[in-house]
Specification:
316 residues; alpha/beta; 13 helices; 6 strands; globular
Length: 316
């Protein structure tokens, strides 16, 4: 039996229950609007000019959390993707490491590749589209040789990140001052590399040992587990890694909690050009700390965040 269509007339809106805007809670008020910073007013005036809304408010909150952790002697860990190095932000991280703000650094294999190439040649990031048709992509012999040596040394017990940083310093690479790993080795702070086999250009070369690479990276994972076990009151920054570092963090956090470390009261942040599933779940939601999600380009966000933290540390 066919159902008959219903004949709907227009709703009578004269019966709506209304209230004054004065009684309504509003999420945006003019007191939170942007202000016009004076020309030549300096960074502090610029920060004050930002709206106290959305990402600007989140960025302030993250800067507060980082400065608070640094003043309290708690860890601030930067887990970075390779693009952070490729976009020229290494000096930002290096400065914060030297100031004692960033206390540990972690990345995946591509981050190590780009950092090493920068230290050695003052350049990195080849044109993939140009080299791929001829099979020339990823064939720099020095990159593979350097990573192979670091893996062999790191597999002896100190881990891939520390071995890489010490090797850059020992070899006196010309642009070592731009290397986050060399800086970490000099400052004796943890810097770990979490390799996914087959993802990095160095893996295409015959001198790379899977045994050494795997062992050196596994040592680094266990070092990172110790870092995460001490994260209470600190900050975990996931910067530009969509998959590997969020997964590594989740496993390290589970190990730390399984071994009885209290890791509950901490802040985590995901800073990237878009917000991906794994950083949101593994860095911000599942750990159940205070989470910040800020979307934007690293080459803009990180210099701003650094200045905000530096200003807060100066005021302490």
């Amino acid at each position: 039996m066919k159902r008959k269509g219903k004949d709907y007339g227009p709703t009578d809106l004269t019966r709506l229950r209304t209230k004054s805007i004065a009684q309504r809670r509003s999420l945006v008020e003019v007191k939170d609007f942007a202000r016009l910073a004076p020309a030549g007013g300096g960074f502090r005036a610029f920060e004050r000019s930002l709206p106290n809304l959305l990402a600007a408010r989140e960025l302030r909150g993250l800067a507060d959390a980082i400065a608070r952790a640094a003043r309290s002697g708690r860890p601030v860990v930067a887990a970075i993707g390779a693009h952070v190095i490729k976009c020229g932000a290494s000096p930002i991280l290096i400065d914060l490491m030297r100031r004692g703000v960033i206390t540990a650094l972690a990345t995946h294999g591509a981050g190590a590749v780009h950092d090493y190439e920068v230290s050695l040649a003052g350049k990195t990031s080849e044109d993939v589209a140009e080299g791929l048709p001829s099979g020339g992509f990823g064939m720099a012999r020095e990159t593979a040789s350097g990573l192979a040596r670091a893996a062999e040394r790191g597999a002896q017990g100190e881990g891939l990140g520390r071995a890489l940083g010490k090797m850059i310093l020992k070899d006196k690479n010309r642009w070592a001052r731009y290397s986050v790993f060399a800086t970490a080795a000099k400052l004796k702070i943890p810097a770990t590399v979490h390799v996914a086999i087959g993802t990095d250009v160095a893996h295409m070369h015959s001198q790379i040992s899977g045994a050494a690479l795997g062992e050196a990276s596994l040592v680094d994972f266990r070092i990172l587990c110790s870092v995460v076990g001490d994260l209470e009151g600190g900050v975990w920054l996931n910067i530009g890694s969509a998959v590997v570092m969020p997964e590594v963090f989740l496993k390290a956090l589970s190990v730390a909690r399984n071994l009885g470390h209290r890791v509950e009261d901490f802040c985590s942040a995901n800073l990237d050009m878009i917000q991906h599933y794994r950083p949101r779940q593994n860095v911000l939601l599942r750990p159940r700390g205070k989470g910040f999600a800020i979307t934007g380009h690293h080459e803009i966000m990180l210099p701003m965040l650094r200045m905000m933290v530096v200003e807060r540390m100066r005021d302490a």
